[in-house]
């Protein structure tokens, strides 16, 4: 019996080589240690626990919140000759008994299980009496309140590390946000040495943002360029989903609506048909897509503005999982910002609302960016690309530029003069010499930069400041009232040692009003 990971990779999974970090993660687990895997959707997370489960003694336990995904994964594994099963509420009594019998007889390599089943009375005791190869926690961000998909039944999983000493614990997620990541690590008692993080770049996805004016027509025009290719159109509300789906159907396209208000049967039907390539376009709320493994989705359209970059990234990431060229189109309208803002403010937790408004602001600023979209997107997740990607609307059709050196210096010195303790709104007020109560109270009307930019419009200043942020001359502290600070890069510009070309604003955006600021 050969026991070499590469051999199993080829023989069982039919792949010729490992994807980035897979080999290292597998080796670590085979070594009996834990792992935290942060990889974008489609990065190949499953293999990281499936493969070592085959090489280690005993059954690999896989916790997953997604019942539909479990079945698909188990079916695929069985087709490759792996002894896999799932145990969740969708099983009848007889089938459930059968699975447990196989488990006890040591006939399973992998058992997929819903969290509440795993943590139900007696189940952990059962496991303690048998060989467990590893415990994998898929969609691990569900354990964190910071994540965007918190699930109470996941919190109990925190006991697993202690309950099974010596059994490798593997937590996997595609959610990149720093706070969530820390939270997962601490709840599952993992440490920094356990972390494996791959790049979040999806070079085959072309990002495009269009100013939204006649969305239905803009969508039709876009679809006309995609023949019968498969795609997803995301809209904000159920009502909008229904409307758009109807329009597409009326136009003779193969499209269907998907949202949480539809019956289980209908949703299952839409999903199955889409997976089987019998349905071309799904128009959906964000309820659609989690855990759907369809590799040939050629486009994702956001008909409305997503509430945050995490969501946008995750949803667009469903395109092009086969690595072939794919498109992500965002229709961006001013009204959407207000709409999202309204939705967020319905929330009752003030602190949470504040976080979400800042995230919305970052989303709007991505949409309005005049720098490479990919740079903005990756920068948001803490990954800094230095070169333009050549595969986004900004790179492909660069906006007109102008010599912004003087304006940039004015803005930077103004940020400095207000003590690097204020957000863009106030900095622009100072530049434009706005007279209001706050200005006078702070004495900022006496600053040397007060009113030095009165000849430039508010929108133009806004665009300039955003570009300075995207290009790394200013740092915008999203966790702290979006306060602007200078970076090292700002120095030579301030000292007049370099000049700066910036893009002329192409679209105008009203910034999201903050609930509170200093
Ligand atoms: P994730 O869970 O990170 O979203 P998956 O585990 O579903 O990703 O893998 C995404 C796709 O990549 C699957 O179709 C899988 O079969 C494929 N894949 C995974 N690892 C490899 C590899 N080493 N070589 C080729 N394809 C791979
Ligand atoms: Zn680009």
UniProtKB/TrEMBL annotation:
Pfam families reported in the protein's UniProt record: DEAD, Helicase_C, HRDC, RecQ_Zn_bind, RQC
Cellular component terms per the entry's GO annotation: bacterial nucleoid; cytoplasm; replisome
Location of the Helicase C-terminal domain: 215-363
Broad class of enzyme this protein falls into: isomerase
Keyword Isomerase: yes
EC number: 5.6.2.4
Tree of life domain: Bacteria
Keywords of this entry: ATP-binding, DNA damage, DNA recombination, DNA repair, DNA-binding, Helicase, Hydrolase, Isomerase, Metal-binding, Nucleotide-binding, Zinc
The reaction(s) this protein catalyses: Couples ATP hydrolysis with the unwinding of duplex DNA by translocating in the 3'-5' direction
Example of a GO biological process term: SOS response
Domain Helicase ATP-binding: 26-194
Molecular-function GO terms, alphabetical: 3'-5' DNA helicase activity; ATP binding; DNA binding; four-way junction helicase activity; hydrolase activity; metal ion binding
Cofactor(s) of this protein: Zn(2+); Mg(2+)
Family assignment from sequence similarity: Belongs to the helicase family. RecQ subfamily.
UniProt xrefs under NCBIfam families: recQ, recQ_fam
Protein name stated in the entry: DNA helicase RecQ
Source taxonomy: Bacteria, Pseudomonadati, Thermodesulfobacteriota, Desulfuromonadia, Desulfuromonadales
Name of the gene this protein is made from: recQ
